[in-house]
Amino acid sequence: MKHKHHIIPKHIGGSDDQSNLVELNIDEHAEAHRLLFQQYGRWQDKIAWKTLSGQITQAEAIKESQKNSDKSWMKTEEGRDILKGRWETRRRNGTDVPWNKGLTKEDSHGLQKLSIWNLKYREEGRLSNIGDIVRGSVRSEEHKKNLSNSLQKVKKIKCEHCGGKFKPGMFTRWHGNKCKRKNPL
């Protein structure tokens, strides 16, 4: 099996032009990235070399890439706005309002486009809201009582660290070995 290796790696600006590509087998490809890592010390080449040579799994490579990737853009004003979900703000009464608050379809081209696709998919039967199924239905008091009783029948698990009793989902998420009241040994 042949791999296409970038002579000038993409992570430093190499292109996909044929003049920048060479076909190598997996072992040669791993060795090429090892040599690039030894020569230039770039973490991207180290991850490529270790993944191709089988020293780390794909999941470990992704985790390592996330750890090493440049996050300096998050420290800029624009980056903070993106992280806050405010990258498209507008002024109203002298204050910034997030793009998704208070807009109508007439104010936003994106919302217009979304509503057109929404209507189209609904007409084709490809889209329905979860709430559409139960919206408008009336539940009897007996039905509400049965729902409440069935939730109360769920067996609770006692946490040995804090002594509280919790439903299985909450127990596995917050208690047991993860309990904050656990005494370190």
Walkthrough of the structure:
With 185 residues, the chain is mostly helical. It folds into three domains: 2-68, no CATH class; 70-125, no CATH class; 153-185, no CATH class. The chain has eight helices and six strands; from the N terminus they run E-E-H-H-H-H-E-E-H-H-H-E-E-H. The strands form three sheets. A two-stranded antiparallel sheet has the order 1-2. It has a two-stranded antiparallel sheet with strand order 3-4. The protein starts with a strand and ends in an 11-residue tail after the last helix. Residues 86-94 have low confidence and may be disordered.
State Rg: 27 Å
* Series of secondary-structure elements, N-terminal to C-terminal: EEHHHHEEHHHEEH
Overall 3D shape? extended
Write out the strand line-up for the largest beta sheet, numbering strands in chain order.
1-2
Helical percentage? 40-55%
Question: Can you tell me the residue ranges where pLDDT is under 50 for at least 5 consecutive residues?
Answer: 86-94
Output mean pLDDT: 77
Indicate the proportion of strand residues. 5-15%
Q: Which helices and strands, and how do they pair?
A:
Layout: E1 2-6, E2 21-25, H1 26-40, H2 43-52, H3 58-68, H4 77-84, E3 90-92, E4 95-97, H5 109-124, H6 130-134, H7 141-152, E5 157-158, E6 165-166, H8 168-174
What are its keywords?
185 residues; mainly alpha; 3 domains; two-stranded antiparallel ribbon; single chain; extended; 11% strand; 45% helix
